[in-house]
Amino acid sequence: MSASAIFECHGHIIADGIDYRAAQALHKRGASETAVRAALARNRDCGVVYYRDGGDRLGASLLAKSVAPEYGIEYRTPSAILHRRGHYGELYGIAYRDLTEYRALVARVRAQGADFIKIAATGMLDFAGDGRVLGEALPFSELSELVRAAHGEGFAVMAHCNGADNIIAAAEAGVDSVEHGFHADARAVDCMVDCGVIWCPTCVTAVNNAAGGRFPRETMAKIVAAHADALRYAASRGAFIACGSDAGAFNVLQGRGAAEEAAYLSGLGIDTAPGNAKLREVFRAG
Ligand SMILES: [Zn+2]
Questions:
Q1: Residue 72 phi, psi (nearest 5)
Q2: Centroid of ligand 1 to alpha carbon of 39 (angstroms)
Q3: How many structural domains are present in the chain?
Q4: Could you give the percent of the chain with pLDDT greater than 70?
Q5: Is residue 188 part of a domain?
Q6: Which domain holds residue 11?
Q7: Closest of 257, 233, 132, 240 to residue 193, by C-alpha
Q8: pTM of the prediction?
Q9: Which of 110, 252, 270, 279 could crosslink 257 through cysteines, CB 3.0-4.6 Å?
Q10: Distance 244 CA to ligand 1 centre (A)
Q11: pLDDT-derived band of residue 211, with 50, 70 and 90 as boundaries?
Q12: Is residue 204 part of a domain?
């Protein structure tokens, strides 16, 4: 791989960063190969050589995995996010009510060709309000069971997670990567380091909206500054920090988002090479 090879460790090939409803609608009658190929080409043109999808429920990421080698992209997918019914994850996920249903979903995504399991430990941030974590976080006991069941099937676990206490719970439950990780504090970072968890901070989901527009400028500025502080501290502790943009999120475009995330983290003085390499090793093909 060349020095300019870019890792997209968290993207949603189904979305375009502009209008997720319109983008998803293209796949309503089965994943659209035309749309998937266009998104893969955009990634290739921006130097992306590795793409770990964060999941969708219409089969776009599974289709992408099957054709990505034609674009020189190594592709990993969880198929859909597995989320607790009524909790965050509906947009890209399928819901379970209890551990029995969760286990059945793990078997289902395996049969579909998933490489790993993606879970939603918390909600998103309230970008439109004060930036707090939305929704109800999964308790530690449930997280531990989800991780144990996935690991028992040989799957690594990618966990959508925000908020310091929730990050600690997820890391101690044994997830392999924490996605976003907004509102991480020193304790949460220390815990990720001690547990060997990879942090995929998806900075550009906030940075690209910092100028205002859809979300209040003050909220976004606070989130961006706190995230940067936590990341600098994480780097000083030798944390595994991976480059993933959450491509498909608002104002995060396919390909360009990954390049922007790589440049932003590099601007903070963070070397993502070790984190990217570890992530690629842990999230191996299923
Ligand atoms: Zn995502």
A1: 70, 25
A2: 16
A3: 1
A4: 99
A5: yes
A6: 6-282
A7: 240
A8: 0.97
A9: 252
A10: 9
A11: confident
A12: yes
